[in-house]
Structure formats: C-alpha cells, structure tokens
Write a structure and sequence with these properties.
Length: 434
C-alpha cells in the first residue's frame, strides 16, 4: 500500500470507490492521454467518467478559465452575468424544447434533483416513474429513484417511485421479442402500471442510454411510445442527458432524439461533458414548468463565471469541429473491432457513438463481474483506462473524449482486446481450479 493510498483511506469514507488493486493518481493530461504520478502515460477511454468531452487541457478552455479567474471567480445568480446568459441561450436553442428556460447547477445529481422538484411541484404529486436498472445521482432524492440496486444504499425516499420496463433490451422478460414487440410490451406495461396508481403521477425520468447500468437501452422509439401515453395523462417526461448529451452517441446531439416521433421531452437535464471537467450541470424545461416554483431560490455556485466561460469555450469547440460526427465515425470503428475479435468472454458489444458497453460472461455464459475486474486491471497494465458498471458489475464502459482519432481508436481497440484475452485466460484458469 502506498503512503497516499493509506492517507486516502484514513480520511475518506469506506464506501468511496477507487479503481484498481493499486490505485493511481492522475496528475496531468493532454488530448486523449493522461499521466500518473509515476510518469506512466495512458490512453484515456473513460474521460473522467464521461466528463472530459472534448480533450484534456483543451487550450480554448484553459485560456478562458485563466482569463476569467484573473477578473472575478464568483458572483452567484443574485447578479447578472453575460457569459451565463449566453450559455443559457445557446443550450436552450440546442435543446429542442420550445420556449425553453435554463437553470444551472454544479452536477448531474443536482440537475436531476432540481428536475424532480420542478415536476413534483408542477404536477402537485410525489409519484415518479423511473426505469429499471437506472441511475440518476447520489443525493437522497436521486438515490431514491435509482433502479440499480448496486447504487441504492437506502429505501427511504421523499418520493414514491414506480419502475417501468424497457431500459435493457437483451435481458429480462421481453428480451426475446422483436423491437416493435418489445416497445409494445413495455408500453402495455406502462399503461397497466398507470391504471393501478392512485392519484396523479408527476413525471417519468429516464436515461436514453443507461450509463451506470452498463450502457443499456431500449429500441429507438421506445420513449416516443411512452410519451404518447404520458401526454394523455399529463405526465412530464424528464430526459436525463447527463451522459448521453452533447453528441456523444454520434447519431444524435441528445439521446432523446432517437425517440423524437412524439416530440421533445418536457424537461432535460445535463452535466458532465459540457464543463469538460469543470463542475457544471443544469436543467432545461418549458417555461411554464421552469417557472412553477412559488418560493424564492438562487444558485450559489451554479453558473459561476469561471465554469460558464469554460463551458462556452468547450461547447463552441465541439460544434466548430463536429465532434458529434467524429464520435459517430470513431465509435463505429471501435465497436466493429471489438465485435470482430469474437472473444467467448464477450456476450455483447452495445451502445452508440463513443458510448460503448462490453458485457462479459464466464465459461457458462453467466454474468462475470470477476472478468470485468480482471479486464479493467489488465487494460491499465497495458496503458488503457476504461470504466466498469452494469447492474451485475460485469460490463466495461468505454467513453473516450469525442476528439478521439481513428488511429487512437484502433490502438485502444487492440489494447482492450488484449486485456480481454488476458482476462479470459485468467478467469478460465480460476474456474478450472474451482
């Protein structure tokens, strides 16, 4: 155990997760690479948990932040801010939500918390629909609606949460159905659920692609079918775009756009990538929903000058360089290489753009968290940083910065395939020994 690991464990909670058997400290980054305290360079395929959206140390962002820091660091929303208004205007326009207003927060958790506050106040109901296998944050409210048991430390909640089918396409009672039949079955389940609920329901909150859940999703059009049902009941649709936003899926700027036939969501939440590592989140909502709160409120740190100028520079860079299109191209290359490897340990390569999940199984085809942990370790040894998740902890999460080059995608694919081969050999040997 290194001295820093010892000190870390002495003063931080036991439940604060750290990757790797021998945790590493990342000291600096550039482009798609980061370096640890020992000077080892890694190709970053996790982007600070999908947060480093464009690239590490993007000059436009560092310049904007440094210049703003030299002027004023903080003012709060009690004072006007030209950069905050400019960013809000741009996000409102990009959101696709008509008559949109924007409220800035410091994280995705806080953004989802605010969205739930808006929905429950607007509908005068504490009943919320959420997806099974979902994750929406670590606050008391968002933990209470999370459908992934690995991230739900308590059953206590100020909300009554009802869970809907549809977040996982290839497992569960509807996995054997065609896409159209899957959507019909999940929609019928939603209708049946609503017929048994006493009183009104405030909202459905859903990730278009489930992040912590292992980059799972239902078929395109699922939430459009849901929205037609929700609209009949006056129930709001909150699209949690904390991980799917800003073009990461390649095909769309927002995840909800894969389900656009019935129109945009009523509320959209964002965070992570927009700040490129700066602490930023937010809510976009129709004006009548956003303005429904009757009490006073401010945001002390949401929309702070330093964060906003960095986010503006980051968003402009993303749009000017068509990083959404790059995510589509390099993501397809990466996924194709992983599928072509044909490794028995890999049950499924799924996802969209540069949001790729690799689900791992043992020799009997059963979910294997051990294989995922082994692959994570071997990838690091080879100089590649990846993530891990899924309801059963057996899915690798691949989410590089959106500026990933074709050469880096090919390099990372080969490193990951080698890590998977080593994990397959290691876990097979352990199974034989047992």
């Amino acid at each position: 155990m290194t001295e820093l690991v010892r000190r870390h464990r002495a003063v931080t909670p036991a439940w604060l997760a750290v990757y790797y058997d021998e945790p590493i400290e990342l000291t600096h980054g550039e482009g798609r690479h980061v370096w640890d305290a020992q000077g080892r360079r890694y190709l970053d395929f996790f982007g600070g948990i999908l947060t480093t959206m464009t690239e590490h140390a993007l000059p436009a962002v560092t310049k904007a932040v440094a210049e703003q820091a030299g002027r004023i660091l903080h003012t709060s929303t009690l004072y006007l801010s030209t950069p905050m208004v400019e960013l809000a205007e741009q996000i409102a326009e990009l959101s696709g939500i008509p008559d949109a207003k924007v409220f800035f927060t410091t994280s995705g958790t806080e953004a989802n918390d605010a969205a739930l506050l808006l929905a429950t106040a607007y509908r005068r109901s504490n009943q919320v629909l959420a997806m099974r296998n979902s994750y929406h944050g670590r606050s008391f409210t968002t933990v209470g609606i999370t459908g992934n048991r690995s991230w739900s430390p308590t059953s206590l909640s100020p909300l009554q949460t009802l869970y809907v089918h549809g977040g996982v396409r290839t497992r569960g009672p509807f996995a054997h159905l065609s896409d159209a039949e899957f959507i019909a079955a999940c929609t019928a389940d939603l209708e049946d659920l609503l017929s048994q609920v006493g009183g009104s329901v405030a909202a459905l909150i859903a990730e278009p692609i489930q992040g912590v859940g292992g980059f799972t999703s239902g078929p395109d059009g699922l939430f459009a079918a849901f929205k037609r049902v929700l609209d009949r009941h006056g129930i709001l649709w909150i699209s949690d775009e904390v991980q799917t936003g800003w073009g990461r899926t390649g095909d769309h700027f927002w995840g909800w756009q894969a389900h656009a036939e019935a129109g945009p969501p009523d509320v959209l939440t964002f965070a992570k990538g927009i700040g490129n590592g700066l602490s930023m989140g937010g809510v976009v909502a129709r004006a009548e929903v956003m303005d429904c709160l009757g009490a006073n409120s401010i945001s002390t740190f949401g929309g702070s000058p330093v964060t906003v100028v960095g986010a503006l520079a980051n968003l402009r860079h993303l749009l000017d360089h068509d990083l959404q299109g790059n995510a589509r191209r390099t993501g397809a290359l990466l996924a194709e290489r992983l599928r072509a490897a044909g490794l028995p340990i890999v049950r499924e390569v799924r996802g969209r753009g540069l949001m790729i999940g690799v689900e791992l199984v043992d020799g009997d085809g059963e979910p294997s968290p051990a294989a995922a942990s082994a692959a994570l370790e071997h990838a690091r040894e080879l100089g590649l940083l990846i993530g891990k998740g899924g309801a059963l902890g057996n899915t690798l999460r691949i989410a590089p910065p959106l500026s990933l080059t074709a050469e880096e995608a090919a390099e990372g694919a080969e490193l990951l395939i080698e890590a998977l081969r080593r994990a397959q050999h290691q876990t097979s040997a352990q199974e034989d020994h047992q």
